[in-house]
Write a structure and sequence with these properties.
By secondary structure, this protein is an alpha/beta fold. The protein folds into two domains: 7-146, 3-Layer(aba) Sandwich (Rossmann fold); 161-338, 3-Layer(aba) Sandwich (Rossmann fold). It is built from twelve helices and twelve strands. Helix 7 (161-170) crosses helix 10, helix 8 (193-207) packs across helix 9 and helix 10 (243-250) packs across helix 11 (262-269). The mean pLDDT is 94.
């Protein structure tokens, strides 16, 4: 399978952070096969972020409607991929991998291989290793199937010049700046609005840094509440930003305060240090990639439940552990990263 110019399809449907963290897979494939054609398959909502990855030649969006599938499968087969790397390994992606007709088809999994007959190879990431590894290392494990060495683990997005120019104007050039993105896909994992407001005031009063608030779709109520509770002047960004525009905007800041989220990985990938707030989720698996970040988490296992009778022990999507992180701890993490200007 050492084609001089292989055509490689990488399948990972979602989510934003996962797609960002695919970067080292594409980078190592590019370093090993400079002339390779590298294509990604993702859900439509996550395709825009791959326009910022210089190693991705083309992105296919999964069909939204059943009637679009025949044409989509025909397009896959016409591409004549030589390799397919399936990083989802579920029923749908297993069949999709097989339908490409590629002679080499590998799956990555950390538990059970689905529909093994659809693949010519698979890579098992043992559970005991998986829980102690970052998602970047997990994704890179599939490169062993194609005998591609791991030369870099860097996660990097490259914002577009036009977006950078617009973002610089929006972020008010000059001075130290903190960006706060308080949202999360899980309402259980959100730090209280009053805590964010207290941090806004202390950062501006004690450190002299300007605080900006931004949220995604469905998060404007939370952003507005923080702005109302804060006593200091906080700049709220209400204009909707696409993912590429947000990447350029995040690059303007000295640090971003956020939860474990897709925007966290976007900010880290453009070189912005992040202070990330976690509840009971694994702090290693989805840690921001690169140097200069801080991951804050309350002591675990929890001994002072803030929501007895509501939290579900052992289910990181159903507990309020993040609320046990103190304002003092968050301020200290921000102060260390803002001190250098």
């Amino acid at each position: 399978m050492q084609s001089e110019a292989p055509r490689i399809l990488v399948i990972r449907r979602r989510y934003l952070g996962d797609i960002v963290l695919l970067g080292p897979v594409f980078r190592n494939l590019r370093l090993h096969w400079p002339r390779a054609r590298l294509t990604a398959v993702v859900e439509p909502a996550y395709a825009p972020v791959l326009t910022l990855n210089p190693d991705v030649d083309e992105t296919y969006s999964l069909p939204r409607a059943m009637g679009e599938w025949p044409g989509f499968i025909s397009r896959l087969r016409q591409a004549r991929f030589t390799h397919v790397l399936d990083l989802d390994n579920n029923d749908r992606t297993a069949f999709l991998t097989r339908l490409t007709g590629a002679p080499f088809r590998a799956a990555l999994h950390h538990d059970k291989l689905h529909w093994g007959a659809c693949y010519t190879a698979d890579v098992l990431h043992p559970p005991e290793i998986h829980e102690r590894s970052s998602i970047v290392d997990y994704y890179l494990a599939i490169l062993a199937a194609v005998q591609v060495p791991v030369a870099t683990r860097e996660v990097r997005l490259v914002p577009r010049p036009a977006d950078l120019a617009a973002a610089e104007r929006l972020a008010h050039p000059g001075g130290r700046k903190l960006l706060i993105h308080p949202g999360s896909r899980s309402a259980w994992r959100i730090w209280p609005a009053e805590n964010f407001a207290a941090v806004c005031d202390r950062v501006q009063d004690e450190l002299g840094a300007q605080v900006f608030l931004i949220g995604g779709p469905g998060e404007q109520t939370l952003v507005a509440k923080i702005g109302q509770l804060a006593q200091s002047h906080v700049i709220t960004i209400n204009a909707p930003l696409s993912v590429p525009q947000f990447a350029a905007f995040a690059a303007q800041f000295n640090v971003m305060l956020c939860h474990d989220s897709g925007p966290m990985h976007v900010a880290a990938s453009v070189g912005t240090p992040v202070v990330a707030l976690l509840g009971s989720q694994n702090p290693v698996l989805f840690a921001p990639s690169g140097a200069g970040h801080a991951v804050l988490q309350p002591p675990l296992p929890c001994t002072a439940c803030v929501s007895p009778g509501q939290c579900v022990p052992g289910d990181s999507y159903r507990n309020h552990c993040v609320r046990n992180i103190t304002v003092d701890a968050v301020f200290a993490g921000l102060r260390r990263r803002l001190a250098g200007g």
